[in-house]
Amino acid sequence: MDISLFERMSDFAWRINPSGNMRVPAIIYASEDLVRDMDDKVREQIMNVATLPGIVHAAYAMPDAHWGYGFPIGGVAAFDADDGGVISAGGVGFDISCGVRNLHTGLTLADLLPLRKELADALYTTIPAGLGSTGRVHLNKKQMNAMLEGGARWAVEQGYGTTDDLAHIEEYGCISGADPTQVSERAKKRQQDEMGTLGSGNHYVEVQHVDEIFDVSAATTFGLHTGDLIVSIHCGSRGLGHQIGTEFLRRMAIDAASYKLRLPDRELACAPILSPTGKDYLGAMRSAINCALANRQIITHLVREVFARLFPDNRLNLIYDVSHNTCKVEEHVVAGQRRRLFVHRKGATRAFGPGHSAIPEAYRAVGQPVLIGGTMGTASYILVGTEQSGHLSFGSACHGAGRAMSRRQANKQWQGRQVIDQLAAGGIIVCSPSTRGVAEEAPGAYKDVSAVVDATADAGLARKVARLRPLICIKG
Amino acid sequence: MSDRYWEHFHHEADIGVRGVGPTVADAFGEAAVALTAVITDPATVVGRATVAIRCEAPDPELLLVDWLNALVFEMTTRKMLFSRFSVSITGQQLHGTATGETIDIARHEPAVEVKGATLTELKVFKDNHGLWHAQCVVDV
């Protein structure tokens, strides 16, 4: 993007002042290099978001922002329902509550090395991944509704994990306000074989090791030490969330006229929060959030089964679970006034600072763990929320590396087999049903995750705690 | 170039599908092939079974989104891939068929699953040469 189109607020904050129909400014947090490398569509989309009714303070884009649909991926925007604020299905995304969950294995790199191949094979054969895969959990109507209301809490009640896990999940494993009656039969049908499945694209289960600690105090609080072995799970609400996104994007596009919403582009389809469409979407979206939390809980159970076979004496503890495609009701102080806002995070992670009541007690003094997924060849990070993130970005940070190249370009540039061999030579085992899928996810197709994380830290959105390097990657 | 073809177009995170043909229905059919090509090479998908699809939408753009999303639904719930399509459009209604087979992961090596068709870059229009274009970005 042309950097001259922005007002430089600092080396890591870039502002577009309101013009035309923009109600608030748009602010991008990133280094100058990252902003220059962003697609022009990011600027166009974040300016469009700034035109939506009831938007509060500013529309934000995180350092990993890239061209999405409606909202940019890496977009954050908060709306006040009492001020005509809207909720947008595109502002949440199709993969509702897609997120990252990290488990501490209680093992070190040295423990893994003799069994690395066996572990990779066992994870690959146990965790259903890719299009056409089927989970082992099949729910009837009553069970489906109970899952949509109960989230990870429901999964634990069914024997997938322990109650200790729930304390370390956003919303303590279950968001309130889910309304399964707003989830269509088609959405439920799409989910019938997909509980406990990974999906495809950028979703993964990775075994990683802690490569570097940046903040000893926070790392100690999160139980992290150099050399520790971590399992990271990245997936979302599967077919159910996709179908809810599909149906409500359509309904909001059609209903916009009846709500007298003048949208700059149809892709920004939204509805007033207090309208029937807005309320129905909230009930359905929260059901999908619970579905994603249950899904990651079941996959956690599968991972624990595998580790129990190979490392019988160890126990996998949940460090934290974050969702990065959501709209949540939160209280934020804006211009000195505490307000109840609907915060959309589309490809952005909640990053609450120390003392926030939503953070588990064990972590509350240091802040919320912010889990950033990288690529299968580079690194992932654990950050921690800062005090200032609340007023900088409604307590939000980046969510990953962010794509730098389209899938089509990546598929032309790399061959999957070659990517797998190169990563194997570097000590990373990749297991996937699709070599083309691997090519499309080649590490070179993504931005430099370290540059994204550094910009996030430099902008004050979150602080670096630890870097994790991949050892095994199960891709869908 | 043929008067009937499909192609993908650039989108940074996801992928654009475009069908082109002498009629709107032809363009919709080609867009469906482009959808399959996001996942696998359509040439590897054998026509063993046919599924009937009906959609209705207030305008051609939403009808395209509905058609593609109906195919996504059939693919995921039947665990099938499709390579041959027939489409007829009357007013706001679409009647179509999709012919294909059950996913064979080893043979088809599905690269991604499509989550849904979006309203981004959504267009149905006739070009200066009289050919219809039907396109949108699909989320993967």
Overview in brief:
Chain A has 476 residues and is of the alpha+beta class.
Note down, in words, how this protein is organized.
The complex is a heterodimer of chains A (476) and B (140). Chain A is of the alpha+beta class. Chain A has helices at 32-37, 40-49, 109-112, 116-126, 141-157, 163-166, 185-191, 216-222, 238-255, 276-310, 389-393, 407-413, 416-425, 435-440, 449-458; strands at residues 7-10, 13-16, 26-29, 59-69, 71-79, 86-88, 99-108, 204-213, 228-235, 270-272, 317-323, 325-334, 337-346, 349-350, 369-372, 380-385, 396-397, 429-431, 462-475. Chain A starts with 6 loop residues before the first strand and ends with a strand. Chain B is of the alpha+beta class. Chain B is built from 3 helices and 8 strands. Chain B has helices at residues 24-39, 60-78, 105-108, and strands at residues 5-9, 15-21, 49-56, 80-90, 93-102, 116-117, 123-126, 132-139. The longest helix of chain B has 19 residues, at 60-78. At the A-B interface, strand 4, helix 7, helix 9, helix 12 and helix 14 of A face helix 2 and strand 6 of B.
What characteristics describe this protein?
heterodimer, A: 476 residues, alpha+beta, tRNA-splicing ligase RtcB, seven-stranded mixed β-sheet, 33% helix, 26% strand, B: 140 residues, Archease, Possible Chaperone, Chain: A, domain 1, five-stranded antiparallel β-sheet, three-stranded antiparallel β-sheet, 3 helices, 28% helix, globular
